[in-house]
Every structure is written in structure tokens, then in C-alpha cells.
Amino acid sequence: MPRRFKDNDPYILSKNVKILLNKGNIIDAVIRVRNHTRNVFCTVAWNHIIDYCMNSGKVSLGLKYFNEMKKRAHFPNAQTFTILLHGFSKNIQYPKSASYALYIYKSLCSSKYVDRLSIIHTNAILQVCALSKQPQIAFEIFQGISDNNLAADNITYTILFNILSYKDMKNIDIYDLRKKMIKQIIKSWKMRCFTVDESLVCSIARSFLRGKNLEDYDFVFTLMEFFFGIKRLEPPLKRNKNMFLDNIDLSQSLSFFNNIKIERIFGNKVLGFHN
């Protein structure tokens, strides 16, 4: 088996860079990568450096090394963009953080990098929009998901429904959006495209609890019955009966919950709800 040469092995380089960064020695880490740029694939090592900067709140420095990485002919991979977008969401207070994130995402959607694009990146930019209170842009990005040959997942819808729970939602038809997204979620869920988890259902519920009508509050109970199989104690309001679940047989949905068990720890007691 051929011997690995320390100076020419990208794995060993990235590992050593990670060790230096864990010690907080970013200067030596950058110098080490620069010294190997010409003859070693350094993308992973650069990713470690950018990630360190973003996690340390040094956004400008992270962008500087991102640009240096490209100038040295080390093209960013999918993980590079994930690190940047998550980094912007962690540092949303940084001036122009949202603008930089949108620029990075648009670059990722371009023909140059489109092969690296995934729903993970879309979810990351949606989170940036959510934290920066830009719902209009978030839903514009959501509308373009299919154009990029992507499919929304449970995280996508969780972020979007959290956005819909904001108090000020100007120029957005919340009622229509909720109805469309719930139908899309149910369709994807029944096709086993993704799992409807607690976070998603709670985000949907929060958006309805922000409503001003009794129908909105009442629908939360229908929601819990539909997804979790928790029976309503009272029948739904007549005017609310088929508001969002038109032409969907509720009894069919309960077949998903033959073995459902939802537990909540309260003090020293475990409260179990069984279907």
C-alpha cells in the first residue's frame, strides 16, 4: 500500500487545520493551507477555516477567506455554501448579513454552481429570511424551489409556517398560503416523501393561533387529530368543517398511527397517549 505523504494529502491537511482551529490558532491554520494550495486539494481545509470564522462571529473574515479560496482555484463545494448560509443565519445581526446570504444563494442557483444546490441550501436561506424578517423574499424563494428541481421537505415547511406566525405580514395572503401549503404537506406525507414531525405540526399550529377567528383556533384540534391521531373532545365548528382538509378522509390518516405513542415528561411522571 503506497505511503501517504503528509505534505500532499488533503485529508491529513484538513485534519491538521482542524486541530489548529480547535486551539484557536487560525493564523497558523491559514498559513498551512496557503503553503499547500498549489499541489493539494484544499477545499475541505478552507471549509474548516470559513466555518471557524462564522461560528466565531467573524463574518468579514469568513468572506475574505471564501474569496481567497476561489482566487487560489479551489472551487467551493456544497458544504462550503451550507457553511456560509448557516453562518449568516447565526450572525443575522451582522450588517448586510441577509444581503450577503441572498447573493451567495443566487450564485449557487447560477449555472456555474447549480449542480451543488440542494434543499439544505434553500432551507438555510429561508432561515436567514425568517430571522431578518423578510417574509416576501422567503416565499418568492419557496415559489422557485421547483424551478431548481428541488422538493420542499418538512424543514422547509416548518420555517415557512413559523414565518406565517409573525404579527406583521403585509402584502401576503396568509389564508391562501396556509391552505396551499397544508395540502402540499398532506400530499407529500401520504406519498412518504418526508416525515411530518412535532416541529412542523407545532409551527402550523402557531400560525393558526395567531389568527383572529374562532375557526383558526378550532382548526388546531383538527390538525392534532389528523397528524397525531389525538381525538377531538368536541366536534369541529360547522363552518370550519372542511376549511383546509377538503376531500380528505380523516379515518384514512389514522391508519398511519396504529403504534403511535406520544410521551411528555412532567415532573417525575410520564404521560403517555396511545391511539
SSE arrangement:
Blueprint: H1 10-22, H2 26-35, H3 43-55, H4 59-71, H5 78-90, H6 97-109, H7 119-131, H8 135-143, H9 154-164, H10 174-190, H11 198-209, H12 214-228, H13 250-253, E1 261-266, E2 269-274
Antiparallel strand pairs: 1-2
Helix pairs in contact: 1-2, 1-3, 2-3, 3-4, 3-5, 4-5, 5-6, 5-7, 6-7, 7-8, 7-9, 8-9, 9-10, 9-11, 11-12
Pfam families: PPR_2
PPR repeats: 42-76
Protein name: Pentacotripeptide-repeat region of PRORP domain-containing protein
Summarize the structure in words:
The protein has 275 residues and is mainly alpha-helical. It folds into 3 domains: 9-70, no CATH class; 76-150, no CATH class; 152-243, no CATH class. It contains 13 helices and 2 strands. The protein has helices at residues 10-22, 26-35, 43-55, 59-71, 78-90, 97-109, 119-131, 135-143, 154-164, 174-190, 198-209, 214-228, 250-253, and strands at 261-266, 269-274. It has a two-stranded antiparallel sheet with strand order 1-2. Strand 1 (261-266) and strand 2 (269-274) form a beta hairpin. Helix 2 packs antiparallel against helix 3, helix 3 (43-55) runs antiparallel to helix 4 and helix 8 runs antiparallel to helix 9 (154-164). Residues 1-5 and 248-275 have low confidence and may be disordered.
